[in-house]
Amino acid sequence: MAGFWDRKEKPYVLVVFALPFLWMLVSLLLGQYFPDPGKLLMRLSGIWASVFIVAVMAMTLVGKIKALKVVNRYRRFIGLTAFFYGLLHFLIYLVLFAGLSWTWISSDLVEKPYIYVGVMALFVMAVLAITSTKGMVRALGKKWKPLHRLMYIAAIGVVAHLWWQVKDDISLAVYFSAFLIPLLIVKIPSLPSYKKLFYKK
Questions:
Q1: Please, which residues have CB within 8 angstroms of residue 182's CB and are 6 or more apart in sequence?
Q2: CA–CA separation, 26 and 59 (whole Å)
Q3: pLDDT in tens, 38-70
């Protein structure tokens, strides 16, 4: 645990990242989201999950800027926070929106197939969260980096999840696509498969 708090400012960074959750929790307890708290909280938690996913994807580029290299020390924090808000989004759906009703959930699984890509993205982030510790980095060795490139798949899943559920308001899908798609395109040349295909000797 001491290794996790290897910098004295990290607890404060954690508090900052937790502020959206605390805001949602306090607002819920004050009754501001009624009569339908599930619908609004799902939207808010989904927005914050997407915000931190954009931040994760941007880390590679931002971390290369000399003046901003300091952000690299929070890469794991940002990734774990993205997973936290993604998990919160899922739990809000199960508890507050679907009311833990299997009848409701099974109906949604038929009528709302975008749930599948959302769950896929969450599963990928769960795997990455579990393997983000220093012990797992050592245990996986050279396999760790290829495994964590799966974040690209999670990001694609998020874009698909956002667009697939669009009915009338496309604003969220447009905003996050405007950030995520360029970040995904920029990362393509750094993929080993791309290098093997275009840089053969």
A1: none
A2: 30
A3: 999 999 999 999 999 999 999 878 877 877 787
Burial class (CB in 10 A: 0-12, 13-18, 19+), 123: middle
Q: Cβ of 115: how many Cβ atoms within 10 Å?
A: 18
CA 44 – CA 20 distance, rounded (Å): 9
CA 184 vs CA 103, 136, 171: distances in Å: 37, 26, 20
Q: What's the start-to-end Cα distance of the chain, in Å?
A: 46
The encoded tokens of residue 140 equal 């996986």
**What is the rounded CA–CA span in Å between residue 114 and residue 120?**
10
pTM: 0.90
Burial 44-63 (b: 16+ CB within 10 A, else e): bbbebbbbbbbbbbbbeeeb
31 three-class SS: coil
Residue 73 corresponds to which tokens in the numbers above? 């020390």
Closest CA to 75 of 15, 12, 10, 119: 10
Closest CA to 136 of 124, 145, 144, 147: 144
Q: Which helix (H) or strand (E) holds 117?
A: helix 114-130
Q: Residue 65 gets which letter from DSSP?
A: S
Residue scoring higher pLDDT (12 or 79): 79
